[in-house]
Design a protein that fits this description.
The protein has 103 residues and is of the alpha+beta class. The chain has one domain: Translation Initiation Factor IF3. The protein contains 2 helices and 4 strands. The protein has helices at residues 30-42, 47-70; strands at 2-3, 14-27, 75-87, 90-102. The chain has a 4-stranded mixed sheet. A hairpin with a 2-residue loop joins strand 3 (75-87) and strand 4. The radius of gyration is 17 Å and the shape is elongated.
Length: 103
């Protein structure tokens, strides 16, 4: 599966199949969440949350690709990611794009 964040494939003709997306709501366990709260007192990167968001993006991307494959797509174009806080320590990540078939 070809994944691009541009809206065309150079030198290729495409057929648009539709929008695809993948989403996940992810959280860290209480211990890591507590330690992250302590980190806000001294500043710096909160590695537990960085890891959580990286994992969430991977899951959302995989779900988007699965949806595209079910449509018979060869590629997903114009991929974007969004995020929002659902509650303290939990984040929703969405990956979305346009599924296309290469002619």
């Amino acid at each position: 599966m070809l994944l691009l964040n541009i809206d065309y494939i150079p030198g290729k003709e495409i057929e648009v199949l539709g929008i695809v997306k993948g989403t996940v709501v992810q959280t860290k366990n209480f211990g890591k969440d507590f330690m992250a709260g302590m980190k806000t007192l001294v500043g710096g990167e909160i590695k537990g949350y960085t890891e959580m968001l990286t994992e969430a993006r991977q899951i959302a991307t995989k779900r988007m690709v699965d949806e595209a494959e079910n449509m018979g797509a060869d590629a997903v174009l114009n991929i974007r990611f969004g995020s929002s806080a659902v509650m303290s320590g939990a984040a929703e990540i969405i990956a979305y794009g346009t599924a296309v078939k290469i002619k």
